[in-house]
Amino acid sequence: MTAQPACDPAVVDLLGTLAYATLTGFSRVAADSDEAPTTRARVALGRLATMDFAAFERIATRLAEMGVDVDEAMAPFVAAVDRFHDRTAPTTWGERLVKAYVGDGIANDFYRELSAHTDPGVRDLVTQVVDDGVGDDYFAAMIREVIADDPTSAGRLALWGRRLVGEALSQAQQVVADRDSLVELLVGGGQTQGPDLAEVGRMFVRLTDAHSARMTSVGLAP
Amino acid sequence: MTAQPACDPAVVDLLGTLAYATLTGFSRVAADSDEAPTTRARVALGRLATMDFAAFERIATRLAEMGVDVDEAMAPFVAAVDRFHDRTAPTTWGERLVKAYVGDGIANDFYRELSAHTDPGVRDLVTQVVDDGVGDDYFAAMIREVIADDPTSAGRLALWGRRLVGEALSQAQQVVADRDSLVELLVGGGQTQGPDLAEVGRMFVRLTDAHSARMTSVGLAP
Questions:
Q1: Any chain A CB within 8 A of the CB of B48?
Q2: Burial class (CB in 10 A: 0-12, 13-18, 19+), B126
Q3: How many contacts, defined by CB atoms under 8 Å, are there between A and B?
Q4: What is the pTM of this model?
Q5: What is the predicted ipTM?
Q6: Which of B39, B50, B71 is facing A74, going by the closest CB pair?
Q7: How far apart are CA A138 and CA A121, in angstroms?
Q8: Taking CB atoms and an 8 Å cutoff, what residues of chain A touch B27?
Q9: Is the dihedral angle over the CA atoms A153, A154, A155, A158 positive or is it negative?
């Protein structure tokens, strides 16, 4: 194996967690597509699912170029991501949509924060993967439709959104607490003083604020 | 809209049923991937699912070129395909694999038969969509692994295979009985005498024979 100076453990952790998130995102959106009320929505969700899988393949390719097996890179994050999904299994079409919209939104913000201090190659890859943005608009439009069809659903879906963000932040905090490498990424690597935990706290505030703005934009109380 | 001499109702039915089969195939394999025992198998199944979706997109594009909406073309076949899946919901990993292998095999043979008398453009499209073949080998290898790990599962999986082929043929016969256009395709369009029902019967014998060969090839009693 050739020497790979770019194989920073923090970058492997970042790409490993993002790989597993896109792989489960793919499965989840594909499962959502199977419950879609029309074949048209089903096709649209199927297309979004295949985009998630393409994102996964791009990350796996990058890890392979670094000499890292994607399975090994994902392994430390499987439990937290699976726990999030187990605890937030949607039971209605509206809940599925809000989970896709809110969950992807907060996850994308989290990965953007994690990649802010990495080298431009990694940062560009993460940005490409999280910023496709097509899905967000589509889910937002469908959520507004669900609420327009049944205005009484807005209260239940707002509560659901709060539960989702609570679970998501709790799993994200657990992951960051378990992996010093990720804390380092968040506060900028290479400094001599210990990790700036206040900065980690500020990041979670930014994630929560962005979540509230997303909820408001689809007509749900944050 | 320009005149579309190629817009034969039988071809629209053929492509409509194939479109819905690939779309449900995508959802089903994506759901299977979520139950895979390893992340490696999960990735492999995810890749197969996206290939099914790509096949769906190719068919939808061809229908659009013919001036036909894919939703409308699929509509007559939704009930039969959904009924097949509702009646054959797998409960174990082995059952999922056998369903994917046996179900795809018999469906692909059915579409190949239906396209035999169509114009070369349509026949080539159907052949490309059903003959990718990558999935078959992969599912066959995984079924052999399941049986090697637990030889007692072979009897249960053989019974499951028989149930699958029974349901598949029953739904296929229903679809053909409901759509005269498909009977015409099977016996070659344009002839003046009525459809040759004996030829339709012979096709179902060929489908069953090919199914038995597939079962035998993975070590299951047909």
A1: no
A2: buried
A3: 74
A4: 0.82
A5: 0.76
A6: B39
A7: 29
A8: 30-31, 33-34, 42, 46
A9: positive
